[in-house]
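From: lab user (bench 3)
To: helpdesk
Subject: output format question, protein + guanosine-5'-monophosphate

Hello, I'm new to running complex predictions and I'm not sure whether the block I got back is the full result or only part of it. Here's what I submitted:
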Amino acid sequence: MSKIIKQKERGSLIVMSGPSGCGKGTVIQEFLKKHKDAWLSISCTSRAPRPGDVPGETYYFITREEFEEKIENAEFLEYAEYNKNYYGTPKNYVEKLLNNGKNVFLEIEIEGARQVVEKMKDAITIYLMPPSIEELERRIRGRRSEPEEVGKERMDKAKREIKSYTEYKYVVYNDSLEKATDEI
Ligand code: 5GP
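Helpdesk reply: Thanks, we reran it on our side. This is the complete output you should expect:
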């Protein structure tokens, strides 16, 4: 008797971007708590770990040389250089999760998002907006004691980044954690 093996439906790839300070990490973690079929892809980066980073959980921390070797070996679904550091999404890992029916989140910047859309036309792209520029400024500057010009630079960068929202299929405003999570 032949066995019928039901193939799992492939999961969705969800690309999320947003300026630093818009609360991407918190929103994604809240979403993952509520949706057990969703996973967050762990990226590789050449940047140094920061306080709060957990190797293998927040990122896989590797050297620039190791990163470049992985580029050579076509191990990334996408990668980009941001603030002079490499960031990239491991291709095999994400493919495996999608083929197992998992919905996979990529929390990446615009250059990487463009590469993903180019390769996977059905990717769901979401831009997470801060509730307002004033609130973003409070979040970006408020939590740091740093010279005025450094804070201004960070804010100018965030404002430039926000302009790329038009390239995403959906825009979600993060004015309430619950509302933003539900909308996603
Ligand atoms: P951070 O150093 O603050 O953790 O991240 C800096 C930026 O890199 C953020 O905008 C984040 O979304 C982005 N990023 C993190 N991982 C990846 C990745 O794998 N690929 C790309 N293209 N960007 C990433």
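A quick orientation on your result: The first strand starts at residue 13 and ends at 17. Let us know if anything else is unclear.
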